[in-house]
Specification:
Blueprint lengths: L1 E4 L14 H9 L3 E5 L10 H6 L3 E3 L1 H7 L2 E3 L17 E4 L7 H10 L2 E4 L14 H17 L22 E5 L3 H12 L3 E6 L2 H10 L5 E4 L2 H10 L2 E4 L14 H5 L6 E4 L20 E4 L2 E4 L9 H22 L1 H7 L1 H4 L2 E4 L2 E2 L2 H7 L6 H8 L2
Parallel strand pairs: 1-2, 1-4, 2-3, 4-5, 5-6, 7-8, 7-10, 8-9, 10-11, 11-13
Antiparallel strand pairs: 6-14, 12-13, 14-15
Length: 374
């Protein structure tokens, strides 16, 4: 199969969808790998490294036009919509429940769009979202500590405190992979950490793996309301796979927080978990609402592209190999987890949460696959 990798053009995005090591694996399986010139530079992978791995360096036009399978990191943005076409398989983070223009562009193009973030195992694990969730959780805690500094508009609080001075308080809403990793870093910085979650089993697991060093509390609207008042840093770490994030933190709650406190909303890719959240970039990462600093960068792992690109390829490569070796239809027939990643096919939305988010028709994948095979 002809596999293309393009350079990300979204603001401040330095990741690339495939490492040279991943390219070599695909070449050794007799696939043609085309890398847009300069695609890996932001992740410290020059064109020469891909060429040494057996890949071909091509123009952006060639990568989009000649690929059968196109790998990206982030969703296509406006200038790329015209490159979407029937017969192309796009494999990337899509997050289209929060992006109706892209959803309609994918439908109109006839492309097969497979989303990393909705590839889901029978046990509910999200293997392609997990590595970026780990990184984003850790970055959110770091950002919270950083933006508490007074010159940056924060309260002027050292998150870890010092002997004789109490540490700052970190509230994490959601105890999944993002929440756990945020807690690891916040604890490492010396903060007092509380995690709110709705699963007692998950909280028992967190109690065990974090050795009882965090406060674990059942989440409810009242509990969130009471907890945000006392927090110096609030980290939004909630996820509904493929769907819009629930707005758990209201504008009223934000208004009760301390001046100079920080909200880091990791759920911003899916619309954000606070009513006051809106996407920001690494170049302009924060804004203030009611005296609260909001850090809502939509591609947090893009700040550490060397780590992120390697972690992403580690997770995605087996699925890329499956699609390349067998074609999309056979690959999804073999693997139900990958099948759940298909969001748009043959001009139809095949992921129910996306259809619901935009009030559009939903077509179960099983109903669409026979059409696409004709």
């Amino acid at each position: 199969m002809r596999i293309g990798v393009v350079k990300e053009i979204k603001s401040d995005e330095y990741r690339v969808a495939l490492t040279p090591a991943g390219a070599r694996e695909l070449v050794q399986r007799r696939h043609d790998v085309m890398i847009e010139t300069g695609a890996g530079v932001g992740s410290a992978f020059p064109d020469e490294a891909y060429e040494a791995a057996g890949a071909q360096i091509v123009s952006v036009e060639e990568a989009w036009a000649e690929s059968e399978l196109l790998l990206k990191v982030k969703e296509p943005i406006g200038p790329e919509y015209g490159r979407l076409r029937e017969g192309l398989i796009l494999f990337t983070y899509l997050h289209i429940a929060a992006d109706e223009p892209l959803t309609r562009a994918l439908i109109d193009s006839g492309i097969a769009a497979v989303a990393y973030e909705t590839v889901e195992t029978d046990s509910g694990a999200l293997p392609l979202l997990a590595p970026m969730s780990e990184i984003a959780g850790r970055l959110a805690a770091q950002a919270g500590a950083y933006f508490l500094e007074k010159p940056l508009g924060g309260r002027g609080l050292l998150l870890g405190g010092v002997p004789g001075v109490a540490p700052g308080r970190v509230l994490i809403i959601g105890g999944g992979i993002v929440g756990y990793n945020a807690a690891v870093i916040a604890l490492g910085l010396g903060a007092s950490v509380t995690i709110l979650d709705r699963s007692i089993d998950r909280m028992r697991h967190l109690e065990e793996i974090l050795s009882g060093r965090v406060s674990l509390v059942m989440s409810s609207s009242l509990q969130i309301e009471e907890s945000v008042k006392d927090a110096d840093v609030v980290i939004g770490a909630v996820l509904t796979p493929g769907a819009l994030a629930p707005k758990l933190v209201t504008r009223q709650m934000i208004s009760t927080m301390k001046d100079g406190s920080v909200l880091a909303d990791v759920a911003i890719d899916q619309g954000g978990s606070a009513e006051t959240s809106r996407p920001t970039t690494h170049s302009d990462p924060v804004y203030t609402v009611d005296g609260v600093t909001h850090y809502c960068v939509a591609n947090m792992p893009g700040a550490v592209p060397i780590t992120s690109t390697k972690a992403l390829t580690n997770a995605t490569l087996p699925y890329v190999e499956a699609i390349a070796d067998h074609g999309l239809l056979e690959a999804v027939a073999r693997d139900q987890a990958l099948a759940r990643g298909v969001n748009v096919l043959d001009g139809k939305i095949t992921y129910e949460a996306v259809a619901e988010a935009h009030g559009l028709d939903y077509a179960p994948l099983d109903d669409v696959l026979p059409l696409s095979a004709v």
